[in-house]
Write a structure and sequence with these properties.
This protein has 11 helices and 14 strands. By secondary structure, the chain is α/β, with parallel strands linked by helices. Helix 2 links the parallel strand 2 and strand 3. The structure holds nicotinamide-adenine-dinucleotide (NAD) and uridine-5'-diphosphate (UDP).
């Protein structure tokens, strides 16, 4: 079984690549390093003791995709490549629409050309917009609050239309909640360029002294301690969810399946600060500031569908997430 990973050197792609190699899958990766570093390739090989084929290039570019499909008999594609910063997407919407949608269209067209119809897509909890009730189930109404989210939702619609038009397609859409943590080796992880937007990488930089203080965006939400609540999931658990999705596609001939990948448990920002301090013994200085525009109070998944149908569930603890992030 040969698996093509787009965005293979990024945060979630690299952890999934490790899990695939550990299970004996043959892997082909493509990345343009727009948000990752070349050394990830060697570090994946160090962790697994295994090799994989890698192409440097842009997934929007059909020429390199055709070269990959010509040179390798690809059975399944996992599509991670894309831009993911919500704030940046509001400032540069065209860049987000171009990269996220164009890369997906090029990829799907070339897959169809080469008769490869097994596809796993990285979607996001952001497609639920502002949920009216919790926990969030897959059949909840969909909406978005920013261009990044709209790219994800648009791609979901494209995939649904594609499946309707041709039942040869065999598609899994995975809606991730909040991935944190890193491989326990410390050789791969999340390395945002510049000042991080997300909570956990920010906490890590404050604890290491690179940044002075965490700004907590609001303590007047309708949550137990007033700070925002999210469903944080260890990236290795998330990576394992992709293996289960892949096994599902190996079993099915055709279909379109959608799963939440989360733990089903919500933690507040203050819970995260406290857990991090306890797990690492490091102090995290913080101050309470204004709410961040566009944030919702609470977001956590109902992961039961993935448990029932993929036989997957998150097993790592909050302590693992904090320790491995550090
Ligand atoms: P990441 O930025 O770490 O990884 C994405 C990788 O894709 C990077 O290595 C980047 O260089 C590469 N890339 C981007 N555009 C490309 C292109 N056109 N051609 C080739 N390579 C390209 O992000 P991640 O956290 O690993 O996220 C992976 C996927 O999961 C993304 O689609 C993201 O939107 C989605 N997602 C992420 C989160 C999260 O919080 N990390 C949550 C929900 C969904
Ligand atoms: N958050 C915060 N300070 C930060 C970054 C995030 O207080 O510097 C809060 C944010 O308001 C939200 C939670 O942490 O309640 C998770 O935010 P993140 O950006 O990591 O994920 P998302 O908003 O996508 O759920």
């Amino acid at each position: 079984m040969k698996v093509l990973l787009t965005g293979s050197c990024g945060y979630i792609g690299s952890h999934t690549l490790v899990e695939l190699l550990d299970r004996g899958y043959e892997v082909v990766g493509i990345d343009n390093f727009s948000n990752s570093k070349r050394e990830v390739i060697d570090n994946i090989k160090k962790i697994t003791g295994k090799d994989f084929v890698f192409y440097e290039g842009d997934v929007c570019d059909k020429t390199i995709l055709e070269k990959i499909f010509n040179e390798n008999k690809i059975d399944i594609v996992i599509h991670f490549a894309g831009y993911k910063a919500v704030g940046e997407s509001t400032l540069k919407p065209l860049m987000y629409y171009r990269n996220n949608i164009d890369s997906t269209l090029s990829l799907l067209e070339v897959m169809d050309e080469y008769n490869c119809h097994n596809f796993i897509f990285s979607s996001s909890a952001t497609v639920y917009g502002k949920p009216h009730t919790l926990p969030i189930k897959e059949n909840f109404p969909l909406s978005t609050t920013n261009p990044y989210g709209t790219t994800k939702l648009t791609i979901e619609y494209i995939l649904k239309d594609l499946y309707k038009s041709n039942n040869d397609w065999n598609i899994v859409i995975l809606r991730y909640f909040n991935p944190v943590g890193a491989h326990e080796s410390g050789l791969i992880g999340e390395e945002p360029q510049g000042i991080p937007n997300n909570l956990m990488p920010y906490i890590v930089r404050v604890a290491s002294g690179e940044l002075e203080q965490l700004s907590i965006f609001g303590n007047d939400y309708n949550t137990p301690d007033g700070t925002g609540v999210r469903d944080y999931i260890h990236v290795v658990d998330l990576a394992k969810g992709h293996i289960k999705a892949l096994e599902k596609l190996e079993k099915e001939n055709s279909g379109i399946y959608i799963y939440n990948l989360g733990t089903g448990v919500g933690y507040s920002v203050l819970d995260m600060v406290k857990a991090f301090e306890e797990s690492t013994g490091k102090k995290v200085n913080y101050k309470i500031v204004e709410r961040r525009a566009g944030d919702i109070a609470t977001c956590y998944s109902d992961p039961q569908k993935a448990k029932n149908e993929l036989h997957w569930e998150a097993t790592k603890t909050l302590n693992d997430m904090c320790k491995d992030s550090w």
